Amino acid sequence: MVFKRMLPWMVMILISITLITLAAFVLWEYIMNEPKSDPNTHINGVDSVQLSAKQINNQTVKIEEVTTNLKGMNHVIRASFAILLTSEAAKKEVETMIHIVEANIIRTLADTNVAEIEGSTGMDTLISKIMNQINAILQKGKVSQIDITEFIVNPIR
Fold first, then answer.
1. Long-range contacts for 24-28 (Cβ within 8 Å, ≥24 apart)?
2. Which of 30, 84, 120, 143 gets the most CB atoms within 10 Å of its CB?
3. Cβ atoms of 103 and 72 closer than 8 Å
4. Alpha helix (H) ranges present in 1-157?
5. Which helix (H) or strand (E) holds 153?
6. What is the average per-residue pLDDT within 89-99?
7. % of the chain with per-residue pLDDT over 70
8. Nearest to 79 by CA among 148, 126, 132
9. What distance in Å separates the CA atoms of residue 100 and residue 60, rounded to the nearest whole number?
């Protein structure tokens, strides 16, 4: 008789323990399988393809010595970039509108303060921003990589 009264309670306790254990395992798997942060994950619509040195040379646009003030007007930056595109047609398109690309780079740098571009993580973030802006205006291809070939930040005295 006591067993009949305790049976529903025992079943409810077993079900509760099972559900709590299942929830713990699901959360554990979700947390442990979280993707690692990669600086290139913020770049929209870019696939990496292995290219030969000649292809890289034929698909790269160089932007020499962009100089502007950083956000806050306390520092000046001088930077050069090598922009690798997905095709030679995209390279010609960028060369045709190089002034727009340079303006986007200057605008991005002007919205950036010194702390945001410190170290390799800051440079990767800057590259991602510039890449997304250039990709937004391209019609014949995409930017697949941007390399910073010169990067000098000086305080204004």
1. none
2. 143
3. no
4. 2-32, 53-58, 88-96, 98-110, 119-137
5. strand 143-155
6. 93
7. 89
8. 148
9. 17
